[in-house]
Amino acid sequence: MEQRKITNQMIAEFKLELRNDEKSELTVEKYLRDVRRFIAFSPGKQIDKGLVLAYKANLEKEYAVASANSMIASVNAFFRFAGWLDLCVKQFKVQRKTFCNEEKELTKAEYIRLCRTAEEQKNERLNLILQTLCCTGIRVSELQFITVEAAERGEAIVSCKNKTRTVFIVRELQKKLLSYCKRRGITSGQIFVTKTGKPMSRTNIWREMKSLCKEADVNPNKVFPHNLRHLFARVFYGIEKDIAKLADILGHSSINTTRIYIITTGTEHRRKMENMRLIL
């Protein structure tokens, strides 16, 4: 039987393959991190189907199903790259959620309190970042496309995950961005930069958002950049009720992904059931 072992050279070649496939750097690092996690699970052992199944069982104990499935997908991708197709395992079955956890959903009122708190703390940049993310529905990684030139045009051309889309900047946000640039002396390029002129990192934005929570009286578990994208999706869908258009705006390839963004809380779900008035 073939003695299977994952070498540093194989990992390096896998990394190159992912980049050639035009995966984002964050995605590449995620795949590699997951493969290294598998290696650390049983260092030195013969890699066979039994070992992979034991790893899968361990993931089920240690992680939420969605996280475990994500890690399995990464390891399966490596096995396919290595030609070890017999080692690929099935992901855990997940029942589609009908509503989301209320403790995780950022409300519009909470978003407003976060913005007001940033304003009170005189953190104009953070306040505008919050409004830009929430008003456009872009990913935090796409803030780099919010430039002076984009603000002047009233639209940004966003390239992400091998797709390019146009993101509209509504008039009120356009005014705020251009006014901010004028006060800060930013004449071209990216708008949201540090004092040294470097782009704001995801980590810095996340940390600054968390610093608002106590004063804004918002659960810190709700406060992270991607939740603003979810809030945009729910508000847009509440007005437009067009999931296909929303998918295009968000840059989703599948409407099934968009569905995750617009599920309501258990409280909202219960309210709608109460309004059915089926009990005599």
What would you note in describing this structure?
- This protein is mainly α and 280 residues long.
- It has two domains: 8-87, Orthogonal Bundle (DNA polymerase, domain 1), CATH 1.10.150.130; 108-271, hpI Integrase, Chain A (Orthogonal Bundle), CATH 1.10.443.
- It has helices at 8-20, 25-41, 49-62, 65-82, 108-120, 124-136, 148-153, 171-184, 202-210, 213-216, 225-240, 243-250, 255-262, 266-274, and strands at 155-160, 163-168.
- It has a two-stranded antiparallel sheet with strand order 1-2.
- Strand 1 and strand 2 form a beta hairpin.
- The longest helix is centred in the first third of the chain and has 18 residues, at 65-82.
- The radius of gyration is 22 Å and the shape is globular.
- The chain starts with 7 loop residues before the first helix and ends in a 6-residue tail after the last helix.
- The mean pLDDT is 90.
- What would you report as the Rg, rounded to the nearest angstrom? 22 Å
Helix and strand string, N-terminal first?
HHHHHHHEEHHHHHHH
CATH class of the largest domain: Mainly Alpha
What general form does the structure show? globular
Total strand segments: 2
Write the layout of secondary structure elements.
Layout: H1 8-20, H2 25-41, H3 49-62, H4 65-82, H5 108-120, H6 124-136, H7 148-153, E1 155-160, E2 163-168, H8 171-184, H9 202-210, H10 213-216, H11 225-240, H12 243-250, H13 255-262, H14 266-274
Antiparallel strand pairs: 1-2
